[in-house]
Predict the structure.
Amino acid sequence: MTLHLKSTSLPIAEDAEDEALEKNRVPAQIEFRRITKMYGAVAAVKDLSLVVHRGEFFTILGPSGSGKTTALMLLAGFVAPTEGDILIGGNSVGAVPSYRRDQGIVFQSYALFPHLTVRRNLEFPLEMRGMKAAERAARVDRMLERVHLKDFGGRMPSQLSGGQQQRVALARALIADPPLLLLDEPLGALDRNLRDQMQVEMKSLHKEFGITTICVTHDQEEALTLSDRIVVMRDGQIEQTDAPEALYDRPATCFVANFLGEANILENPGFEVESASPFGTVAMLRPERICVAARAAPKRADADQRQFVTGIVEDMIYAGPLRKYHVRAGNSVLIVREHVAAGQQVFRPGDEVRLDWLRSDVRFVTA
Ligand SMILES: Nc1ncnc2c1ncn2[C@@H]1O[C@H](COP(=O)(O)OP(=O)(O)O)[C@@H](O)[C@H]1O
Ligand SMILES: [Mg+2]
């Protein structure tokens, strides 16, 4: 069973609090206008401008220390900008304290109230908004069911697994149907399988609730999986903002190319790089775009659109469904990644091979 909070009952506005809850149910549009946050001489965030659209799942991605959490804290109102303005739904929130900003928040360390049952944890935000007891109970029931914790309402947080605690944290953030959901490394504390599972769950919750969601992560795969758009941050500044596929397929800079997956950066590679688009500075080629074959293997039908180079295998790395080669060609060592398939020839260190790729797969990035 799924629950559609949008189409079900908030109480008919009877008092100011209910009215506030009612009015805020449109997902928020967010705008950062030239935001700078200084800590002493360090700019944690530097002249940041960006717009997050209504209902978007927007991810702030970057290495540790790039200013992701600071950006989120600024939006949440936990820290004040040194310069610039933040608008939510078109209104400046500079003067609005964090408890007055209608937002659900989930941090890496679930931060449930340890002395309250799951049920009471979920009720808390509703109580704060003045919702009546019967309505609260009904809402909590629906939410518990929605996050597959129907029978766990009476437990204390310490009696739950990490994944279950994280579900409760998400449920609590969503229960008052806020126009904005803020997530800081929400799955960082979970192990791999659970994280994959929770990613699917989060995606489906986002789809269902349609809440504008801003998620901070350093995990590129998580960002690619969940997001409508991603901003890549570096040293407090925006490196690139784009949809996942565009970001991966057409990175603007070496930094983005390397941060999102693996990249062969062909700077003075020792062979001429042919390309379908002869503009740009540094050539970049994704490992999975390169084919590896025996040196004298017959060429495929589209050979006229491909570049061929010969090389020597330096390393072969087996990774379950994938095989990775390091191949020395010219001055470079190219990373090649192929899906393991039946009947495929496997090469070993020292083997001479021929690499080829479509000229149209060569991208140009700025150094
Ligand atoms: N409260 C603070 N006081 C001083 N420096 C801080 C504070 N918070 C963050 N910083 C600094 O700002 C930069 C960005 O930090 P942060 O936003 O936490 O990055 P991220 O979340 O991407 O790891 C780092 O250099 C960090 O040391
Ligand atoms: Mg952080």
About this structure: The chain has two domains: 16-254, 262-365. Residues 39, 42, 44, 62, 64-70 surround adenosine-5'-diphosphate (ligand 1) (CB under 6 Å). Residues 109 and 201 are 18 Å apart (CA to CA).
